Amino acid sequence: MEKKNIDWSNLNFGYIQTEKRYVSWFKDGAWDEGALTEDATVVLNECAGVLQYAQTIFEGLKAYTTDDGHIVAFRPDLNGERMEDSARRLEMPAFPKERFVDAVTKVVAANAAYVPPYGSGATLYVRPYMFGANSVIGVKPADVYQFRIFCTPVGPYFKGGVKPLTICVSDFDRAAPHGTGHIKAGLNYAMSLHAIVSAHKNGFDENMYLDPGTRTRVEETGGANFLFVTRDGKVVTPRSDSILPSITRRSLMHVAKEYLGLEVEEREVYLEELKDFAECGLCGTAAVISPVGKIVDHGREICLPSGMTEMGPVTKKLYDTLTGIQMGRIEAPEGWIHIIE
Ligand code: PLP
Ligand code: COI
Questions:
Q1: pTM over the 0.90 mark
Q2: How confident is the model at residue 162 (pLDDT cuts 50, 70, 90)?
Q3: Which among 102, 123, 125, 124 has a CA at the least distance from the CA of 22?
Q4: What is the mean predicted confidence (pLDDT) over 212-241?
Q5: Does the CB atom of residue 50 touch ligand 1 within 6 A?
């Protein structure tokens, strides 16, 4: 299979239309068998549930070319599980996780020419999503849905690749207590748009959101969980019911403990203790691990000792081990790597 003529090493995190995508309809109480299509447009009635009441959820995962030439996806079963959880919270029918993995496999295989080559620094980002498709005017769930998956080759999420970021403590909340922060609903991201535009205008790369109840604890950013490293080398990640359970973060905590022999802790992390950490990183599918060099809390600057020029040493080890596993250079734990071809 011949690869597309794309400047892989200079891709940013953008959308490039590929040839095939997957569509399945839910009608009369059941999902149809689903199919690949070349049609990238979605045509909906003006009163569709997604347009009126934002009934939409999504996922994000990546496919990679490994050093021995396979195309693989990283833990797609966990994305399938999380999407089932998201669907239940928004009163949508769950698309079964086994079918989810099968559909991801079909889309990636059908777009193999767009999977960036090994060593290019780029990956294929896979975006499953689902939305209420029939007309709904009273506030209630739709009863017709589309589940779709497209993919697009991408480079780093943050410009500058692995250069440490400067983030600010946001005055806005991304989630409500007992709300939808723990699922991947489009509405959470709509909520964050004003906050991210404001952060960028003020010269910051991202927002640090605090817990919406007390505004004393660290939650996450608009698109990634936090990892911190203590001065004695322990890896700490915030525990909260209103953050997205990141698959990257869960994987990194395993890598830290089982591959690197580090102590790990998932617990409440207070804004007031940030000054005591040695390293900070943002972790997620898109972000991988992006190091944070500085956190600004309303004019108070917290400079991480790891500095503004490179990743801290523990963050770097975590990054190298995780990407080594994803690219096939390091043996993966059982079930983490799904071979597509
Ligand atoms: N938190 C938010 C709000 C996200 O959008 C994402 C991205 O999916 C993550 C965390 C990271 O999750 P994952 O590692 O599963 O991609
Ligand atoms: C991902 O990492 O897959 C996400 O969905 C985050 C988004 C901000 C691109």
A1: yes
A2: confident
A3: 102
A4: 97
A5: no
- Contact 60 CB / ligand 1 (< 6 Å): yes
Give catalytic status of residue 184 as yes or no: yes
How many residues does the structure list for the chain? 341
Q: What pLDDT does residue 1 have?
A: 78
> Does residue 192 have its Cβ closer than 6 Å to ligand 1?
no
Task: Return the structure tokens found at 115.
Answer: 């999977």
| Residue 246 beta carbon below 6 angstroms from any ligand 2 atom | no
Please, which residues have CB within 8 angstroms of residue 5's CB and are 6 or more apart in sequence? Answer: none
Q: Cα separation of 312 and 321, whole Å?
A: 14
Nearest-CA residue for atom 10 of ligand 1 = 224
Bridge partners of residue 21, in order along the sequence: 37
Whether ligand 1 lies within 6 angstroms of the CB of 65 is answered as: no
pLDDT in tens, 78-95: 999 999 999 999 999 999
192's tokens: 């964050």
CA–CA gap between residue 206 and residue 322 (Å, rounded):
23
Q: Residue of the nearest CA to atom 2 in ligand 1?
A: 223
Residue 112 DSSP symbol? G
pLDDT category of residue 214 using cuts at 50, 70 and 90: very high
Q: What is the pLDDT of residues 17-48, one digit of tens each?
A: 999 999 999 999 999 999 999 999 999 999 99
Residue recorded with tokens 């200079």:
10
253 alpha carbon to ligand 1 midpoint, in Å? 15
- Given 62, 184, 201, 316, which residue is catalytic? 184
**Short-list 338, 334, 323, CA closest to 106:** 338
Mean pLDDT throughout 287-316? Answer: 95
Q: Over 90: is that where the pLDDT of 52 sits?
A: yes
pLDDT band of 334, cuts 50, 70, 90: very high
Q: How far apart are CA 51 and CA 225, in angstroms?
A: 28
Q: Which of 61, 157, 183, 243 to mutate to test the pocket of ligand 2 (most atoms within 8 A of CB)?
A: 157
What is the 110 CA–ligand 1 centroid distance (Å)?
Answer: 25
The phi, psi pair for 52, rounded to 5°, reads: -85, -45
Q: Determine the atom of ligand 2 nearest the C-alpha atom of 157.
A: 9
